[in-house]
Specification:
By secondary structure, the chain is α+β, with helices and mostly antiparallel strands. It has 13 helices and nine strands. The mean pLDDT is 90. The chain binds ligand 2U9.
Amino acid sequence: MRPAPTLERFLTMTTNDPTTQTLTQLDLSTPADVSQLFAEVRQRFDEQSVVHTSDPESWRTFVVKWTGRKSGILSQITDNWLKPAAPELKRAVGQELNQLKTHIETVLAERQKVIERSAEEAAVARERIDLSLPGIERAIGTRHLIRQTYEELLRIFAAIGFSVVEGPEIETPYYNFEALNIPEHHPARDNMDTFYIEGARRPHLLRTHTSPMQIRTMEKQLPPVRIIVPGKVYRRDNPDATHGYMFHQIEGLAVDTDITFCDFKGTVEYFAREFLGPKTKTRLRPSYFPFTEPSAEVDASCHVCGGSGCRVCKQSGWIELFGAGMVNPAVYGFVKYDPEKLSGFAFGMGVDRLAMMKYGVTEVPLLFQNDVRFLKQFP
Ligand code: 2U9
């Protein structure tokens, strides 16, 4: 009996793939030939199956190469070795083919599991967080210096019973001027300082202070009133180192039946100590605002030199903090409050200016340029 030509030889020798040829063409005629042939196919499979398990891509190619319905090796063997096999060989081929199929499917399934497991392990390894490793420093940023100052001021006044109310930034001349005892033709009115909204059916403007919300509150609420009103205000100032066309204000109002100048002075001193430190001294300088009478500028002893005089307080020892005064009774007329029974004090402060003064910022634009190098100095 002539030894069966080995598949190896077939595979290396012949240009065309033996599974595309019939057993007759391969000149194989005995069951022994067939079983040797299948033994070598199986060996070939086993060799290749080891090689291709490295990565999912080549594994998929390998699986299709062997089990592909159309041109997979098993389909080829079925079509070319089994179907046309001579009757005396059909059974041997059929048996061999089933065993080969079972072997291949078993190996493929095992390898599939191995590959999936190692893919999972790789994913887990990839996702495993080595908790001992330092965390990823995520720059979380900080609250803006103005926001920090706002919250500090709100905290200081909330601690003595002031509640926060916020109002619209677009106002009517009545609430921004009239009701605050700023009559027609008052200098503060002319559009030199005020942004008027063009094209509005009735005159509207960008509020120049948050005082309108105090009027709106008194219209809706009977005394006692104890509120602070934070918010953006707008003035047609030419932006320079210390001015912007928009800045942040906090105004306060306390109205009741028995509020005295002492309450006013006490509140001012409490604020100065809370904001600038327990040793801070205050002084009131006479001033004028249409909505307060008497009015005062409130100064605090310089928090840098303690009052001995330095560059920050321009050698005066004093820093201007905010304006304030006893509510001008004329204002009560606009909100149907009885000036005979009521008294109150009010104050207004520029939050940007207080923030710059406290944190030594010299240029307003720095606050709005969003330069992280500047912003992260105030964690
Ligand atoms: C009502 C009655 C009185 C609010 C006041 C000031 C003084 C004041 C300025 C400070 C710096 C504005 O931001 S600033 O430029 N404000 O000096 N404001 S008394 O007085 C009121 C407000 C409302 C009903």
